[in-house]
Amino acid sequence: MSAALPPVIVLVRPQLGENIGKAARAMLNFGLTELRLVTPRDGWPNPDAGPASAGADIVLAEAEVFGSLADAVADCTTIYATTVRKRGVMKPVLTPEAAAREVHASAGRSAYVFGAERSGLETDDVALAHAIVTVPINPEFASLNLAQAVILLAYEWSKGIALASPPEVPLDPPAPHAELEEFIQHLTRDLDASGYFVPPERTEATLRTLRTALTKTGWSHNDIRMMHGIITALGRTPRPR
């Protein structure tokens, strides 16, 4: 796993407090905690950010405010501008995955820079960066919101660190074939008693089809025991309600 410093998330001229909160929530889900704000429109702190962060209080409490993007990334050695367009500036263009690999390989501090909700990053913002990060997206509908963009980059970065994995649910081991065969015989007897095999000359072909279907599923011991109980119950005389 990577020992490089985690990237900082820089929001340039963010407009709505709730969008800052949602970005903080996206960050903390994937282990990022350092948020920097460049001239937020409504000032900082913003009362709308907390509820939208869904508990990512540590990110908001430690967020720093800067008067310019240059000040916000002054301590960073590699700066990635996130934008769907190059905006006339010739820079290397990376996917989020490629950018994450570079961040993990870097010995310095990296920054992911995001623009305002409506207009994105300006040309001067992009010019300050070392590379552009662009998400492969539907060209006919390139409409990611701020938190979505943050979560995409944060997720790709998180692949290189040890986050908790979803718990594995143990599966029942498959039953031995003898148990499945016993169930098939049970089912066959009850189907025969109910008059299922019509016409009689198709019985062999029907049984073959039935066996083929039942041997595909990988039944466990508990599956087979349950099915025995279901077939037995179906064969009983219904009790009056």
From TrEMBL:
Q: Which PANTHER family match?
A: TRNA/RRNA METHYLTRANSFERASE (PTHR42786), TRNA_RRNA METHYLTRANSFERASE SPOU TYPE DOMAIN-CONTAINING PROTEIN (PTHR42786:SF7)
- The residue ranges of the tRNA/rRNA methyltransferase SpoU type domain are 8-155
Q: Which GO molecular function annotations are given, in alphabetical order? A: RNA binding; RNA methyltransferase activity
Does the keyword section mention Phosphoprotein?
no
The family line of this record is: Belongs to the class IV-like SAM-binding methyltransferase superfamily. RNA methyltransferase TrmH family.
* Protein known as: tRNA/rRNA methyltransferase SpoU
Keyword rRNA processing on entry: no
Alphabetically ordered keywords of this record: Methyltransferase, S-adenosyl-L-methionine, Transferase
Natural source organism: Sphingopyxis fribergensis
Gene Ontology cellular component terms for the protein in this record: cytosol
InterPro entries in the cross-refs: Alpha/beta_knot_MTases, RNA_MeTrfase_TrmJ/LasT, SpoU_MeTrfase, tRNA_m1G_MTases_N
Top-level division of the source organism's lineage = Bacteria
Residue ranges of coiled coil: none
An example GO BP is: tRNA nucleoside ribose methylation
